[in-house]
Every structure is written in structure tokens, then in C-alpha cells.
Amino acid sequence: MSTAKKEYKRITVKTLVDMKANGEKISMLTAYDYTMAKIVDGAGIDVILVGDSASNVMAGHETTLPITLDQMIYHASSVVRAVNRSLVVVDLPFGSYQSDPKEALRSAIRIMKESGGHAVKLEGGKEIKDSIKRILNAGIPVMGHLGLTPQSIYKFGTYTVRAKEEAEAEKLIEDAKMLERIGCFGVVLEKIPSNLAKKVAESISIPVIGIGAGPDVDGQVLVLHDMIGMTHEFNPRFLRRYLNLFDDMTDAIAQYVDDVKTRDFPNDSEKY
């Protein structure tokens, strides 16, 4: 049974905390360009993530690692220009925050000033605590990201479920509590056991957004191109495809090619 959705003129980080307190689930999708972001925002999404997954779906890289800070700013700027309602969260890319808190702050400031984004997201726990604190101290909202952290894929060596072992699960819980304690407004949990994600969501007061983390968190995020079926090779268990645009677009383009070749397009009504 569905529940009525409260109308918000503009989503802020405070809105998300209030949504969790009120038991309202949070919707989140990625977007990387003006046209798609305008559609996503207009459809009522709460949070748009300008994800470093642009490295995969927009640029064709195997991992998220190659995308640069300048490229993230370009994508985020395009998204921000389209948005009227959604909160825009921008990923800090690999190499822009891990080694030096001062570099992390410089990277976050560039994103906020040059793109107009509303918040940044960083992958990791206590290892990047000082970088997160430095960004927060500058007044920039931060969302954390725990579990499967794609920027560390070469360390993990696999995209399989994380935190199945007790030691890693306990560290994840402690990292989530640390992120709340130092001032993050939310955290993404990626590809971890559902019961662990539920435990984390119940143990902290900030919103927990899941991707492959089960239903008992405060919201869900998917990559837009996966959700609408523009990509078709990626088929994890957690992905629900709401459209099959790969086939639809392929058919439409093939029809256009045929119409041009057979001189059916343009017809008499389509010329001046």
C-alpha cells in the first residue's frame, strides 16, 4: 500500500534528515547531463547524484578511477543548470581527497564554486576522517559511502558483496557512527548484507541510502542508465529495470536509418 508523498519545494540536507525522522523513504538517482537531469528532477526525485560512475556510463572506462576533478565539475555544472527541486550531490573522484586533507578541501571547494553543487560524497571511513572533517569545517555538506567502494576496486579485486565477515561488518558499523559523529548528513551503503544495512540504519540518525543493501534503509539509489535500461550488460541482483531503452532506442534508430535509405523520411508533411 503506497503512502502519500509530502511535497517539498526544494530538497536540502535538512529535508533528508527530517524525512528519515518522519519515516519517509528517500529517492536518489544519478544524472550526468542537463537533459537527463531535467527529466529526473521534474519527475520528483529527491537527490541527484552526479556520480563518478560517469566514468563508466558516459566515458566507457572499466572503472570509476580515470575520471578527473575537471570532468566531474563539467558533469555537475550541467546537472545543476537543470535542477529546480532536487538536492545535487557530487562525487569527489579518486585521487582528489584520499592522501591530503588540504587537497580534499581544495577539491570540494572547486566542486561547490565551479559547479554549484549542493554537497559532496566521499568513499571510505576512518581512513579519510581528517579529509571529511576539513571539508565539513569549511561549511560544505558531506555524504559518506561505505561497503563496496568502487574507487577501491583494485584493493578488493572483486565487486562481490562486502562486510559478510564479522570483522568487516563491525568496522562498517563503527565507520557509519563516526561519519554521523563528525557531521556527515547521510551515508550510502553499497552491496552489503541486508541485515547489516538495517542495523546501521537503526543505529544512526542520519539517512542511510542503499544500493544493493536491502529494503530496511532510509532510501535507495540506482544508476539512471541502468534503471531505464540504456545499459544492458550490467545485471546485478539489486537492479530493477523500469524501461528497456536499449532495445527501444536501437529499434527506433534502425527504423530511422531505413526511412532515410528508402526516402520515406522526410515526407511531404515534413518539408517546407
TrEMBL record:
Record's GO cellular component terms: cytoplasm
User: Where found, per UniProt?
Assistant: Cytoplasm
Q: What class of enzyme is it?
A: transferase
What is the catalytic activity of this protein?
(6R)-5,10-methylene-5,6,7,8-tetrahydrofolate + 3-methyl-2-oxobutanoate + H2O = 2-dehydropantoate + (6S)-5,6,7,8-tetrahydrofolate
UniProt xrefs under InterPro entries: Pantoate_hydroxy_MeTrfase, Pyrv/PenolPyrv_kinase-like_dom, Pyrv_kinase-like_dom_sf
UniProt entry keywords in alphabetical sequence: Cytoplasm, Magnesium, Metal-binding, Pantothenate biosynthesis, Transferase
Residue positions annotated to bind Mg(2+) are 52, 91, 123
Q: Transferase among the record's keywords? A: yes
SUPFAM superfamilies per UniProt: Phosphoenolpyruvate/pyruvate domain
**Binding positions for 3-methyl-2-oxobutanoate per the UniProt entry:** 52-53, 91, 121
Keyword RNA-binding among record annotations: no
GO terms of biological process kind: pantothenate biosynthetic process
Q: Could you say which EC number(s) this protein's record lists?
A: 2.1.2.11
Q: In which pathway does it act?
A: Cofactor biosynthesis; (R)-pantothenate biosynthesis; (R)-pantoate from 3-methyl-2-oxobutanoate: step 1/2
Q: Where is the active site?
A: 190
**Main location per the UniProt record:** cytoplasm
Cofactor binding remark: Binds 1 Mg(2+) ion per subunit.
GO MF entries: 3-methyl-2-oxobutanoate hydroxymethyltransferase activity; magnesium ion binding
Q: How does it assemble?
A: Homodecamer; pentamer of dimers.
Summarize the protein's role.
Catalyzes the reversible reaction in which hydroxymethyl group from 5,10-methylenetetrahydrofolate is transferred onto alpha-ketoisovalerate to form ketopantoate.
Tell me the protein family, please: Belongs to the PanB family.
Name used for this protein in its record: 3-methyl-2-oxobutanoate hydroxymethyltransferase
Q: What is the lineage of its organism?
A: Bacteria, Pseudomonadati, Bacteroidota, Flavobacteriia, Flavobacteriales
Q: Which gene encodes it?
A: panB
